[in-house]
DNA sequence: TAAAAGTCTTAAACTAGTTCATTTTTTTTC
DNA sequence: GAAAAAAAATGAACTAGTTTAAGACTTTTA
């Protein structure tokens, strides 16, 4: 069958861990919803229940919370070929504490909670897909959970630049500061210093 | 069949997410290895390849790395009914950066990498078990990955005390400092301050 | 294309957390 | 159960990162 570019992208992503028959591919695609968001628009806001988990086929989004003082803390930037959403709210059906906002025009494929549950019943192989996907995410979050605690801000910045060179140039310095966990002023100092070296 | 207390504990843990037949239970138990470690002994050291993932049936252990200055950074405390190990090294078969040391006499059930792979072939339901287990761990690590960045040391301490009251009294203040990401001196100050309030 | 809004830079005064040194208290070991 | 070792407390001097404020630069919008 003939798939759109976005559908081919998600099928390739899935085929990293499991093999699907042509019929299974079609079934899977039929369970997904296309979503588009313009720059600065929200995919989701705090207080809502996360209805979907998303695969990004184009663009860039930031996932963040606001603290009591209204200051944003960015927990991830998501670009093409990445998954995003609020897994906690998606699973528990409790209101989310997260905002997801597009930093560029973005296109996504979403799977609803009903279709996610259905997927495991219709194509049990997807248990394996998600087992491996979550395992890999878990490994990177376990590593990351100590960064804020054991590295200086400058080290965290250098790590980020090294690990996500494709992202650094697509986001503002201010958003990067909110991800690194420092003020925009101190981010500016770090960048000036690092460039001087 | 009659199971040991430790075996009953792990079967109950597994049955939170999947149902096993009597035969499957016996098969699963047969794939596990019993391990005991005395206080201050290592379950694993940096440089080794993580041969097992462990379920703790008794005791308490700390999982940590050493930084360039030789200072420890504890990434988790593991007690009864928890899973531990270095998932990254276990999966990639690359040398681990972690030490796992018993802070009390501890007893564990380990599954080797060969048996872990075999398990999915023999009882595919375990894909579901690990999918859900990793999903839940992922949710808590996603939440935690921002703590070091967005909370003060005092807030992190209060969070830990609230979330793991059973653990606080079993570990030293020094180890807690290495987990919170501060010096033992500052940990002491925080505790004095919090107790005064 | 001009005005408005947002982003980045610089600098001075401040605060959370570190470092180093010493003493007291608790735990371990023989 | 005494001696040794480790953990905890306290305090003074220090540093990484914050706050506030103001000006320069860049992007968005009408």
UniProtKB/TrEMBL annotation, chains A, B:
<protein>
    <submittedName>
        <fullName>Crp/Fnr family transcriptional regulator</fullName>
    </submittedName>
</protein>
<dbReference type="InterPro" id="IPR000595">
    <property type="entry name" value="cNMP-bd_dom"/>
</dbReference>
<dbReference type="Pfam" id="PF00027">
    <property type="entry name" value="cNMP_binding"/>
</dbReference>
<feature type="domain" description="Cyclic nucleotide-binding">
    <location>
        <begin position="16"/>
        <end position="120"/>
    </location>
</feature>
<dbReference type="InterPro" id="IPR018490">
    <property type="entry name" value="cNMP-bd_dom_sf"/>
</dbReference>
<dbReference type="InterPro" id="IPR014710">
    <property type="entry name" value="RmlC-like_jellyroll"/>
</dbReference>
């Amino acid at each position: 069958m003939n798939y759109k570019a976005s559908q081919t992208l998600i099928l390739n992503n899935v085929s990293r861990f499991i093999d699907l028959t042509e019929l299974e591919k079609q079934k899977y695609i039929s369970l997904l919803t296309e979503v588009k968001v313009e720059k600065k628009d929200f995919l989701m806001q705090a207080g809502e229940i996360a209805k979907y988990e998303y695969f990004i086929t184009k663009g860039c989004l930031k996932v963040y919370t606001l603290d009591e003082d209204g200051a944003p803390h960015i927990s991830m930037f998501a670009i093409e070929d990445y998954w995003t959403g609020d897994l906690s709210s998606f699973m528990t059906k409790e209101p989310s504490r997260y905002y997801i906002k597009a930093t560029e025009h973005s296109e996504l494929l979403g799977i609803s909670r009903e279709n996610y549950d259905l997927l495991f019943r219709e194509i049990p192989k997807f248990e394996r897909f998600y087992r491996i996907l979550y395992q890999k995410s878990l490994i990177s979050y376990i590593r990351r959970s100590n960064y804020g605690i054991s590295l200086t801000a400058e080290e965290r910045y250098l790590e980020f630049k090294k690990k996500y060179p494709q992202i650094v140039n697509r986001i503002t310095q201010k958003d990067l500061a909110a991800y690194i966990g420092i003020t925009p002023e101190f981010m500016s100092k770090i960048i000036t210093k690092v460039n001087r070296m």
